[in-house]
């Protein structure tokens, strides 16, 4: 029994050894196949090399084109014809001395001042030796004022009546100026009184020491409902 077991063990060992040898041989064959693998060498067509050489010879340097500057447009010159007129008038020669010494002082021209005439307003007198007078006297003055005064409708409807005192100046020529209301009553009566006084004809001017002067004057204008 022991001999059979040993023979069987030897047989198994031999099988294992042959198996390992076969595996090693197959590995060697595979390594040699990869190691000694040959590649086919491709041949280069000589016509391609010639084409490359021709292309290199035909390369030309690129040059920049010069920018063309716009040419200036020629404008025709205008010619002016001068007519020479014969003149028999003799012109005197004028000598101009352009040499001026450095120390010489040149006076600056100053335009003469124009004196403005001062208008002096004459004095207005309150009382003079000879007072101004209306043509025909004071009675004619009152009649003129009463005749030319129109009662304002507003004052009439409102029942306004009374006296409007007007002040004015009799000028040296007898005309009336500076008419103003000194005391009024309203209702349009003040404006009507001013209008009437401004319409007065020229007076005889007042005099002081025999000379006509400006004199202030006052007069009442009556507004009375009838």
CATH third-level topology of the domain at 124-223: TolA/TonB C-terminal domain
Q: What portion of the residues fall into strands of 2 or more residues?
A: 15-25%
SS-derived structural category? alpha+beta
Distance between the termini: 188 Å
Low-confidence stretches: 38-42, 51-58
Helix content: 25-40%
How would you characterize the largest beta sheet?
A: 5 strands, mixed
3D architecture notes:
It contains five helices and five strands. By secondary structure, the protein is α+β, with helices and mostly antiparallel strands. It has a domain at about 125-225: TolA/TonB C-terminal domain. Strand 2 (about 160-170) and strand 3 (about 175-185) form a beta hairpin. The model is unreliable at about 40 and about 50-60 (pLDDT under 50).
Topology diagram in text:
Layout (H helix, E strand, L loop, with lengths): L1 H34 L10 H13 L65 E2 L12 H11 L4 H6 L3 E9 L5 E8 L5 H10 L7 E3 L2 E13 L3
Parallel strand pairs: 1-5
Antiparallel strand pairs: 2-3, 2-5, 4-5
Summarize the structure.
By secondary structure, the protein is of the alpha+beta class. The chain has helices at 2-35, 46-58, 138-148, 153-158, 189-198; strands at 124-125, 162-170, 176-183, 206-208, 211-223.
Features:
226 residues, 5-stranded mixed sheet, TolA/TonB C-terminal domain, 5 strands, rod-shaped, 33% helix, alpha+beta
